[in-house]
Amino acid sequence: MIAKRLQTLAPWRNAPAWHIAFSGGLDSTVLLHLLASLAKTQTLPSLYAVHVHHGLQAAADAWPDHCQLICDSLQVPLRVMRVQVQPGASLERAAREARYQAFSEVLGAGEVLLTGQHRDDQAETLLFRLLRGAGVRGLAAMPAHRPLARGYLVRPLLALSRVELEAYAAEHQLKWIEDPSNADPRFSRNYLRHGVLPTLTQRWPQAVASLARSAEHLSEAQGLLDELAQIDLQTADQPSPFAWLPLPSLALGPLQALSDARQRNALRHWLAPLTRLPDSDHWAGWNSLRDAKGDAQPLWHLADGDLHRCGERIWWLPSTYSEFSDAPFSWPLPHTPLELPGNGRVWCEGSPPEGPLEIRYRQGGEVMEVPGRGRRDLKRLLNESGLPGFMRGRLPLLYQGERLLAVPALAGLWPCSPAGWQLHWVPQSCDQGLS
């Protein structure tokens, strides 16, 4: 009966491989046994088990050997990965982040990671996030599947209760690890599992099933909000006047025309792949950025980068995007492209002047010769162009001695020099700026 529930895996049967997150506990032991048994009668992708050793307690040192014995008996290859858990306010969160980083390293393109979370876990997640004041996305709890690294994370047991898993384990005489930390009430999930949910089920026997069902409803509601966000973002996703600048951006006007709630919904959807999302109180930063005067250049600090406003457009810059060297670079061979550390590359089209050339960055007060206009302040030229302020310090300038010869020919803002050559620049992309 329980094996029939694995029909949810049908969409993933053509994946190159299935990796089972195998802690050695009840849930993952049942999942591994189920899949290994199914593989004997059906054609499945290659199965692999992955055990992540966090090194947080002495008892865990014996778990890889236990997992190896189980995998050997089921003829499933096992990979043990040791991780370093970074200290912080939440040990649970830090351990989870380290674990999923390890899983991400395992997954190849199109491969699937299968985890053993069940219906009781879903109910705990909903309660935990409800008490933290989560919105619809958080209260949708754990999705049945989502992208992970180059592959997918799939939770095939979400419709099953822990009681059903225990019955399966007893029927097949499975042995599993009992993690001592799972009984420690100092951890929030353990407190909910052992102190809160039993009390709720005494009064409402179907509490766990009802909570899990509510999570399904909220997941459906989040899907509708995502569809609305996509509609709103289509209007704001207008071409940038700086098509050469490979950074995510949106037109501000279409967003301002929406209600506050729809603005936040659209931005959450747009920012979700880029950064951890702000809490409710932190959204005041968006209001300040949105309502700033047109000639201001405000920014909104977020967990993994900054949202900049330049005129009537907003731009996303990841935190690591600012990490570039502004030291001068000699360019002895201007006929070949020059890589600029953290700042893309430059090259010359045509025949640049002979002599020692150098790439420098703005210090202020630069003046250059513009064909047909004479000598002009670079600052004024940049203001005329509308180039976003956060890019002006990254603009590579070509010097011969103390003479500013050229700035990159960006979107035709500066015409060819009388000698018929141009300096071109391909900036660092947003993906390159992400660690």
From TrEMBL:
Binding site for ATP: 23-28
Pfam families listed in its UniProt record: ATP_bind_3, TilS, TilS_C
SUPFAM superfamilies: Adenine nucleotide alpha hydrolases-like, MesJ substrate recognition domain-like, PheT/TilS domain
Keyword Nucleus in record: no
Start and end residues of each Lysidine-tRNA(Ile) synthetase C-terminal domain: 357-425
Catalytic activity line of the entry: cytidine(34) in tRNA(Ile2) + L-lysine + ATP = lysidine(34) in tRNA(Ile2) + AMP + diphosphate + H(+)
PANTHER family named among the record's database cross-references: TRNA(ILE)-LYSIDINE SYNTHASE-RELATED
Protein's name in the database: tRNA(Ile)-lysidine synthase
